[in-house]
Design goal:
Chain lengths: 274, 258, 284
C-alpha cells in the first residue's frame, strides 16, 4: 500500500498508493459521494427552483419507476430496438463489406462515397425517417441500421482487404475455391476488425434509439424523457437519465467483453487454418 | 499502373453516376417523400443561398464553434488535472465513466429545464456533451506517457511546467486528437438535436419543421446541408490534425515501412 | 561546470590515462563516491533487498564499468545513482557533496533510445530540451548544441526527427543531449545493447573520445565483459543476493585503445577471463 520513506528524501514520508484495489474503491466511492453531495446541496439551496430535484427525490422516483410496468416496457423496447438494429447492421455490414472488399473495382467505386458518408451522423436523416415511418419503433430501427451499417461495413472492408497475402497464396496453392478461401481465410482474419466495429456500434445504437425517441417520438426511454420534461415531471426526467447512464455503461461493458472474446478467439482460430 | 488509373476513374465516376442516377430517376417523381432532385436543389438554393444563411446557418455554426472550443479547452485542462493528480483520478474516474455512459442528447431536456430554450442552452449542451470524449482521452493519453520519457524528465530536472507542456502534452497529443474528433462529431449531433427540441431557429429546427409541414423538398435541402456540414467539419479537423501531428503521422508511416 | 569543449583540447593525454590519475592523486575526494548503498523494495514481510552494501568510487576523467550477471540489480543501482529511485541506506557524493534526488551534475543515457527521445522534437530540439530551464544566453545554448552534435557526428541531422534516423544515430542523439547538459558525471545504462556490432564499436570509441576531450567521468552499466574491459579504467564487478561489490579491478591497458589492437593484447584476454570467472563464481 505504501512505499517506504528514505534516507535521501525523508520529507516524502509515507505516500498513499492510489492504485491499490482497496484505495481505488474507497476513493471512487468518496468521489461519487462528493459529486452526489454537490448535486444534493445545489438542489436543496433552491437556486434552480423545481428544475433540479434533490438526489433523494430522484432516487425515490427511480425506485417508484422500477415498480411500474410502463418503465420496464420502455426499457425493453429501447434495448430491443438497439439490439435488433445492431444485429441487422452487423449482418448487413459484413455482407456489404465482404462484397466491396473482395472486388477491387467495387471498392474503388465506393471509396469516395463511403468516405463522404462516414462523418455524417444518423441524426441528419432523422426528419426523413420520421416522415416515412412516423413516430414508430420501425423508425428507430431504421435509424440504428442506417447509423451503424456504414461503421460495420467500413471495418469489414478494411478487414477483408487486410487479409494476409501469404495465407491467400497458401489457400490458392491448396486449391481452395473463392468461396472456401473467403470462409476459411478472409473472414477469420477480418473478425478483429468486425469486433472493433461492434464495440463502437453497440453504445452508438443505444444513443440512436434514445435520439429517435426524444426527437422523433419513437416509443422507449427517449420518448419518456421528452414527455417527463414537457410535463414538468422533473424527478422522473432525472431518474430516467440515470437509467440511461446505467444502460450506457452496461452496453460499453458488454460490447468490450464481446470484442475481447472475439479477439481472444481470433489468433487461436488462425493457428488451425493452413 | 493500369489498375490504378482504372480505380481513379471508378472512384470519381461512381459518385457522379450515383448523383446522375438520382437526378434522372427522381425527375418525374410524384412520391411525397422523394421529390425530384432538381426540386430539392431549387429549394436548397432558395433557402440556404443565402436567404436563411445569416438567420439560421450562422447561429448554428457559431454555437458549435463556441461550444466546441470551450469543450476542448475544458476537456484538456480537466483531463490534465485529473491525470496528474492521482487522488483526483482515483476519486472521479469511475464517476466520469458513468456520466460518459449517458447518451449526450439525453442531457438536453435537463438543460432545457434548467436554462430554457435559448442560445445559452444550446451552447451549454454542446459544451457538456463534447467535453467528455476529449477529457477522457486526455486522461488516458497522459497516463500512457512512457515511463522512459518520465525518467528523462526527472534526470534532466525539467521544471513542472516544462514536463506538462513540453513532454506530457505532446506525448498525449495523438490520443487527445482522437478524443477531440469524437467531441466534434458529438458536438455536431448535439447542435442539431438542441435545435430540433423546441426551437424555431437553426438548420436542425428548419429541417424538422419542414418535415412536420410535409415540405419534403425543404427537408431534403436541410438534410443535404447538414450532411455537407458534417463532412466539411471532419475535413477541416483532419487538415488541422495532420498539420499539428505531422511528427506522429510521419513516425507511424516510418514504423510501417520498417 | 565550466569545462568548455574548446578549452579541453587535451590532445596529448590520449596516449595514456595514467598521467591523469597521477595528476589527481593530490585530490583526495573522488568525483563520484558511493558508500554502503542499500536498496530494498516493499516493506515488512514483503521487503526485498536488491542491493545489500555497495561501496566504490570513480575519479575525475575516468571511465568505470559496472558489470554483473543479469538480474543482479545493475539497473536498480543506476536508478538510485540518478535519483530516479530513492535508496534505502548509505550515501552517494559528487565532489564530496551528498546527493538528494536527481543531481544537476549528472546526465543519464538510457538503454532504449526509442523511448528516451521525444518523437515530436527535431534532433536539435531534443538536445535543447534539458537546457531550457538553465536560461543560458542564446549564443551559449546554440554553441553547446552545435558542439554536442558535432561531437557525436550528427551536425548534418539537426533538423531531422529521431525516427528518421537509424538506431545507432538515435543513441548518438541521446548522447549529444547528455553532452550539451555538460554533466560532470555521465551515466549510461547498457547504452549499446540495442545496436548492431559495427555501430557498437563506433559508439564505444565515441564514448572514449568524449572522455578524452571533455575530461568527463563516465559510468557505464553493461553485461558485456569485453566492452567493460575495452572501455574501463576500472571495473566494478557486482554480484550476490543482495548485490554487493565483488571486486574493483583496475584496468591498465598499454597504449591508446583501439578496437583491433587493444582487444588482441594478452593483458586484455587476462582481464577478460579474470572478470568473467569472478562473475561466474558469484552466479553459482
Amino acid at each position: 500500500m505504501t512505499i517506504s520513506s528514505t534516507t535521501r528524501s525523508s520529507a516524502a514520508g509515507r505516500r498513499l498508493d492510489v492504485d491499490a484495489p482497496v484505495a481505488k474503491t474507497v476513493l471512487g466511492a468518496v468521489g461519487a459521494v462528493v459529486l452526489l453531495g454537490g448535486w444534493q446541496l445545489a438542489a436543496a439551496s433552491g437556486a434552480f427552483g423545481t428544475g433540479l430535484p434533490t438526489v433523494t427525490d430522484t432516487l425515490a422516483e427511480l425506485v417508484r419507476l422500477l415498480g411500474t410496468q410502463v418503465f420496464w416496457v420502455d426499457t425493453g423496447v429501447t434495448v430491443a430496438s438497439a439490439a435488433a438494429g445492431l444485429a441487422l447492421a452487423v449482418a448487413g455490414g459484413v455482407i456489404l463489406g465482404v462484397l466491396i472488399g473482395m472486388f477491387e473495382p467495387v471498392w474503388a467505386a465506393t471509396l469516395a462515397i463511403t468516405e463522404f458518408l462516414k462523418p455524417i451522423p444518423p441524426i441528419v436523416i432523422l426528419p426523413l425517417a420520421v416522415m416515412v415511418f412516423g413516430p414508430t419503433s420501425k423508425m428507430a430501427l431504421f435509424l440504428v441500421v442506417a447509423g451503424c451499417l456504414l461503421t460495420v461495413s467500413i471495418q469489414a472492408i478494411a478487414g477483408v482487404r487486410d487479409a494476409d497475402p501469404v495465407a491467400l497464396a497458401t489457400a490458392r496453392s491448396y486449391g481452395m475455391g473463392r468461396a472456401e478461401t473467403l470462409w476459411r481465410v478472409v473472414l477469420p482474419g477480418a473478425t478483429a476488425f468486425i469486433g472493433t466495429a461492434v464495440r463502437v456500434s453497440a453504445p452508438a445504437s443505444l444513443v440512436i434509439v434514445v435520439v429517435a425517441g426524444l426527437l422523433g417520438g419513437a416509443p422507449g426511454l427517449g420518448r419518456s424523457i421528452y414527455q417527463a420534461q414537457a410535463g414538468g415531471l422533473y424527478p422522473t426526467l432525472y431518474a430516467l437519465v440515470v437509467v440511461l447512464g446505467v444502460l450506457g455503461v452496461a452496453s460499453q461493458w458488454a460490447s468490450s467483453a464481446v470484442e475481447r472474446r472475439v479477439l481472444h478467439w481470433h489468433p487461436s482460430f488462425r493457428k488451425e487454418t493452413p | 499502373m493500369k489498375r490504378r488509373a482504372l480505380n481513379t476513374v471508378l472512384g470519381v465516376g461512381a459518385p457522379v453516376a450515383v448523383i446522375a442516377a438520382w437526378w434522372i430517376v427522381s425527375a418525374g417523381s410524384t412520391n411525397a417523400f422523394f421529390p425530384p432532385l432538381a426540386t430539392i436543389m431549387e429549394r436548397f438554393q432558395a433557402l440556404w443561398l443565402f436567404d436563411r444563411f445569416a438567420s439560421d446557418v450562422l447561429p448554428s455554426l457559431r454555437n458549435l464553434g463556441i461550444g466546441y472550443a470551450i469543450a476542448v479547452v475544458v476537456g484538456v485542462v480537466l483531463g490534465f488535472v485529473i491525470a496528474t493528480v492521482p487522488v483526483l483520478r482515483a476519486m472521479f474516474e469511475p464517476a466520469l465513466h458513468f456520466i460518459r455512459g449517458i447518451p449526450p442528447v439525453a442531457l438536453i431536456p435537463i438543460l432545457i429545464t434548467l436554462i430554457g430554450f435559448g442560445q445559452e442552452m444550446r451552447v451549454t449542451s454542446i459544451v457538456l456533451a463534447a467535453t467528455f470524449p476529449t477529457m477522457i482521452s486526455t486522461i488516458d493519453g497522459i497516463r500512457a506517457v512512457d515511463t522512459g520519457l518520465r525518467d528523462v524528465c526527472s534526470v534532466y530536472r525539467l521544471r513542472k511546467h516544462e514536463r506538462l507542456l513540453r513532454v506530457y502534452l505532446p506525448a498525449a497529443g495523438p490520443q487527445i486528437a482522437a478524443g477531440m474528433q469524437v467531441s466534434l462529431q458529438i458536438g455536431f449531433i448535439v447542435m442539431i438535436a438542441s435545435e430540433m427540441l423546441g426551437s424555431s431557429q437553426g438548420i436542425g429546427a428548419m429541417t424538422l419543421l419542414a418535415q412536420q409541414s410535409f415540405l419534403a423538398a425543404d427537408m431534403w435541402a436541410g438534410i443535404l446541408l447538414l450532411g455537407f456540414l458534417g463532412f466539411a467539419a471532419n475535413i477541416l479537423f483532419e487538415a488541422a490534425r495532420s498539420r499539428v501531428l505531422a511528427w506522429y503521422i510521419g513516425s507511424k508511416r516510418q514504423e510501417r515501412a520498417a | 561546470m565550466s569545462t568548455a569543449y574548446a578549452a579541453s583540447a587535451r590532445a596529448g593525454r590520449t596516449t595514456s590515462n595514467k598521467s591523469l590519475r597521477e595528476d589527481t592523486v593530490t585530490q583526495t575526494e573522488p568525483r563520484l563516491r558511493v558508500e554502503h548503498l542499500a536498496k530494498s523494495y516493499g516493506r515488512g514481510d514483503q521487503e526485498k533487498q536488491i542491493i545489500g552494501d555497495l561501496t566504490f568510487s570513480v575519479d575525475k576523467g575516468e571511465v568505470a564499468c559496472i558489470v554483473g550477471p543479469s538480474g543482479v540489480g545493475k539497473t536498480t543501482l543506476l536508478k538510485c545513482l540518478a535519483g530516479l529511485h530513492p535508496s534505502t541506506g548509505g550515501a552517494m557524493y559528487i565532489d564530496g557533496k551528498p546527493l538528494d534526488g536527481p543531481p544537476a551534475e549528472m546526465a543519464l543515457v538510457f538503454q532504449d533510445y526509442s523511448r528516451s527521445l521525444m518523437p515530436w522534437l527535431t534532433v536539435e530540439k531534443n538536445v535543447r530540451l534539458p537546457l531550457r530551464h538553465m536560461r543560458l544566453p542564446k549564443a551559449e545554448a546554440a554553441e553547446r548544441i552545435e558542439d554536442a552534435l558535432a561531437a557525436v557526428g550528427l551536425s548534418h541531422a539537426a533538423k531531422q526527427y529521431p525516427w528518421q534516423l537509424s538506431g545507432g544515430m538515435q543513441q548518438r542523439v541521446a548522447i549529444a543531449r547528455a553532452l550539451a547538459y555538460r554533466p560532470e558525471v555521465l551515466v549510461m545504462d547498457e547504452p549499446f545493447a540495442s545496436v548492431d556490432a559495427q555501430t557498437r564499436f563506433e559508439l564505444e570509441d565515441l564514448c572514449l573520445s568524449i572522455r578524452d576531450k571533455l575530461d568527463m567521468t563516465i559510468v557505464v552499466v553493461t553485461h558485456d565483459i569485453d566492452e567493460a574491459v575495452y572501455l574501463s579504467d576500472r571495473i566494478v564487478a557486482i554480484g550476490g543476493k543482495p548485490a554487493g561489490v565483488l571486486e574493483v579491478i583496475d584496468v591498465d591497458l598499454p597504449g591508446e585503445r583501439d578496437q583491433i589492437t587493444t582487444r588482441a593484447l594478452p593483458e586484455f584476454a587476462e582481464l577478460r577471463s579474470r572478470t568473467l570467472s569472478l562473475i561466474r563464481k558469484a552466479q553459482q
